[in-house]
Amino acid sequence: MSVPTELGYTAEHEWVSIEDGVATVGITAFAAESLGDIVFVDPPAAGTAVSAGETCGEVESTKSVSDIYSPVDGEVVEVNPDLEGEPESINSDPYGAWLFKVRLSGEPGELLSAEEYTKLTEGED
């Protein structure tokens, strides 16, 4: 399973891409594969304040419901509208089907590199 090197990662299996003070957040291929067929996504609403490491939404699959954790502090400025009608797009394109975008309220915290995230997930297979 490939892990894009240009992204940051959390131990809770979120990925983050930061550009011009806005973080785009999604769940990793490892998480999508572990969850199975994703049938519903409940991301935080636009305007919601989120804190790094805190629960801010849910992803529901045919196997279970998993929390979404924000990897950064800030305010949600956009939610991916495609996920309402096509939540399964996360399974087919986990690094393209982002969940939400956050305008950062400060410097992002410690994120894992692709190499660190790969080492983390090797122990969870």
From TrEMBL:
Q: How is the cofactor bound?
A: Binds 1 lipoyl cofactor covalently.
- Quote the function comment for this protein: The glycine cleavage system catalyzes the degradation of glycine. The H protein shuttles the methylamine group of glycine from the P protein to the T protein.
Q: Per the UniProt entry, what species is this protein from, by scientific name?
A: Nocardiopsis changdeensis
Per the record, residues carrying N6-lipoyllysine are K63
SUPFAM superfamilies, per the entry: Single hybrid motif
Q: NCBIfam families this protein is in?
A: gcvH (TIGR00527), PRK01202.1 (NF002270)
- Show where the Lipoyl-binding domain sits: 22-103
Q: Tell me the cofactors it needs.
A: (R)-lipoate
Name-wise, this protein is Glycine cleavage system H protein
InterPro entries tied to this protein: 2-oxoA_DH_lipoyl-BS, Biotin_lipoyl, GCV_H, GCV_H/Fam206, GCV_H_sub, Single_hybrid_motif
What family does the database annotate?
A: Belongs to the GcvH family.
Lineage, uppermost ranks: Bacteria, Bacillati, Actinomycetota, Actinomycetes, Streptosporangiales
Keywords of this protein's UniProt record, alphabetized?
Lipoyl
Oligomeric and partner information: The glycine cleavage system is composed of four proteins: P, T, L and H.
